[in-house]
Queue: 2 jobs
Job 1
Amino acid sequence: MSAEKKIALVTGGARGIGFAIVERLASDGCAVVIADIIKDVAAESTEKLSSRGIECIAVTGDVSRPDDVESMFKMAGERLGTPDILVNNAGITRDNFLMRMSEQEWDSVLNINLKGSYLCSKAASKGMMKKRWGRIVNISSVVGVMGNAGQANYAASKAGLIGFTKSLAKELAGRNITVNAVAPGYIETEMTENLPGAAKENFLKIIPLKRAGKPGDVAGIVSFLVSDGADYVTGQVIHCDGGMVM
């Protein structure tokens, strides 16, 4: 990270992979904004970091709602400053086989995972273009590359995020703004700990490293992508999956 303190906003940043990213960027010297829909959890995570002397605030809202996104970025700007770094991490699953999948299950996943990234990137890029510097990192998934039965909605949203990443990278490159994606595989989080034992074993069978990843593994890649060391990296999808997809 450069000597000048950067401001990083992480959606879905109150727990799991998002909170690991927040912690890592804070340790890199960033002031951090935890953007999350769950107000109490966001406040608790912020207090935890603030007690360690980290400059951190929480903003709450639904990333799929334009008014909420506008409010979150306005609050972040007033309290810390315009974000230099955006990590689109907020995501949900509503797994079901296509024949049983409701329209609501489809729409809710696409709205949070894909539309939310569009709205937040649009809001963040305005300030970044004025500064002629910015970093956007989208958290996709190996499922967006390889697909997965019972996750047509999730896979579509994460595949869409990859196309979004590459297109936005081309649009914003002229203003010194890089846009990249990270595609995690099987990472130990609250979302995956509820998987049946057989499902976990099946995942481990197709991972060459024979272990699940940690949230910190994803955070380390994000840290690199927003650093000065990645100035010449844009439009890329970095897999963090123990070799699941090669």
Job 2
Amino acid sequence: MTITESTNIKVSLSPYAHSYAAQFAAEQTTPPKGKQVYLNTLAVYAVNNYLKWLNIPSNLAQSDCWNPGLRALFDVADLVLPNIGKLECRPVLPGQSTLNVPLEVTEDRIGYVAVQFSEELDQVELLGFAPYHAIAKSLEPLPLEQLESLDTLIDKIDWIKKSVRISQWFEEIFQPDWQLPASLLPPYRYSPRFRGPNDRTMRAKLMDLAGQGVVLLLQVNLQPPDTEDIDILMRLYPAGDASYLPPDLQVNLLDESGNSCMKTQAGKTNDKIQIDFSCQPEEPFSLRLNLGDISITEKFII
């Protein structure tokens, strides 16, 4: 989209914000590093205030830029959103036409907010939002006219709140309704040939379609370290004593915009449905099940 004046948010910088920035800058060993930390601190503080206005929780104390050792070593301007992820708040100086992102902050971010400074440093403008993939894929400066609106950021936060965060599974953090497969399925249902070193990232969930239950099993596998691909294996099984999935059960894999990527439908004697695909870090997707007038959508984000 093209950024227009009406899409930008102006945030005043209070003396309180400047006192933090001055304190953190004074800790640095060189004037250029001090200036970098000063601007980073103001950018994060401004975005933090903006999110407060929207009642979106954040945690400055947990952010790397609030850690004396990390802000001294790295060019970081991150803001932790609890149970959501890290949002990077990058300063944009007067006359600058691109959003510049240091290499050290091109991972472990849900995205980037461009924070435009005035000469007086009494206020900033939040110019827009760049999703993680817009930066991580090219590692090149992003022209400011290619920023998305801040509404995109709010939509992304809302999506993540309602989503299963799959990356947490590698840390053995699971939502309560995602259980070990053995608690919902007999062993013969999920074939041993799919099992192996990534059993710990295999979970299952019971989904109720107006009294007709199905079990959604998800297995997540990391690709070799030289790639960012994450393989997802999804399977649907009949629940309980049923031998087959409900006839005419429709299964649709959707991207973040709701566009269909894959679709299939159960016949009269299908005892499972399987979908395999790969994703990138921070990539969202959803699975929609339709049976007659009943529809269930489960949202995910890597």
